[in-house]
UniProtKB/TrEMBL annotation:
Protein name: NADH dehydrogenase [ubiquinone] 1 beta subcomplex subunit 10
Gene designation per UniProt: Ndufb10
GO cellular component: mitochondrial inner membrane; respiratory chain complex I
Biological role stated in the UniProt entry: Accessory subunit that is involved in the functional assembly of the mitochondrial respiratory chain complex I. Complex I has an NADH dehydrogenase activity with ubiquinone as an immediate electron acceptor and mediates the transfer of electrons from NADH to the respiratory chain.
Alphabetic keyword roster: Electron transport, Membrane, Mitochondrion, Mitochondrion inner membrane, Respiratory chain, Transport
Lipid bilayer topology: Peripheral membrane protein
InterPro entries associated with the record: NADH_UbQ_OxRdtase_su10, NDUFB10
A Pfam family this chain is assigned to: NDUFB10
UniProt subcellular location: Mitochondrion inner membrane
Family indicated by similarity: Belongs to the complex I NDUFB10 subunit family.
Organism: Nyctibius grandis (Great potoo)
PANTHER family associated with the record: NADH DEHYDROGENASE [UBIQUINONE] 1 BETA SUBCOMPLEX SUBUNIT 10, NADH-UBIQUINONE OXIDOREDUCTASE PDSW SUBUNIT
Length: 175
């Protein structure tokens, strides 16, 4: 064995002689301060915090699963019912955000499929491409050409005009 030993690898066992603690008649001020701090500040704060956590554990509230009640559509609001107009507008904005997120999720799935499949993306990701086409067409039919300042009223008018055009096309096709 070499003379320069690695003392960390070959640790020496501890000695068996006890370490004597100094015992004085004067108490240590640090331990007194720690004890006073523990009972005066830390213990009440810890008690209150644990009590609050127990109360919250009984009534769990998941803010990210908040469910809004469906409000009447703008077409169902009575004339002059401004509160109904406001609620319908807020509901329309929430629906629009949900539809935007749906389109983004489908786009991310298509991108992941293309990344995963590589050169075979055209045949192996056909289902995702078809799904993206359907979702974007539905989104474009409902919210397309509304612009940045689109609202529930203009969206409703757009849908009404589209329905009128479809009825005219059916009437012309049947004649």
């Amino acid at each position: 064995m070499p003379e320069d030993r690695d003392w960390e690898a070959y640790k020496v066992p501890p000695t068996r002689t006890p370490v004597s603690e100094r015992i004085t008649s004067v108490p240590n001020p640090v331990t007194i301060f720690q004890t006073v701090f523990n009972y005066v500040v830390d213990a009440p704060v810890t008690f209150v915090r644990e009590w609050i956590e127990r109360q919250q554990a009984k009534n769990k509230f998941y803010y990210y699963h908040q469910k809004f009640r469906r409000v009447p559509d703008l077409s169902e609001c009575l004339e002059g019912d401004y509160l109904c107009f406001f609620e319908a507008e807020a509901q329309w904005r929430r629906d629009r955000m949900v539809d935007q997120q749906i389109v983004e999720i489908i786009q991310e799935r298509l991108g992941a499929c293309k990344q995963r499949e590589g050169p075979n993306e055209f045949q192996n990701c056909a289902k995702e491409v078809e799904q993206l086409m359907q979702v974007t067409k539905a989104y474009q039919d409902r919210y397309g050409d509304l612009g940045v300042h689109g609202n529930a009223r203009t969206c409703l008018m757009k849908q009404k005009h589209r329905m009128i055009e479809e009825r005219k096309a059916q009437a012309n096709a049947s004649q």
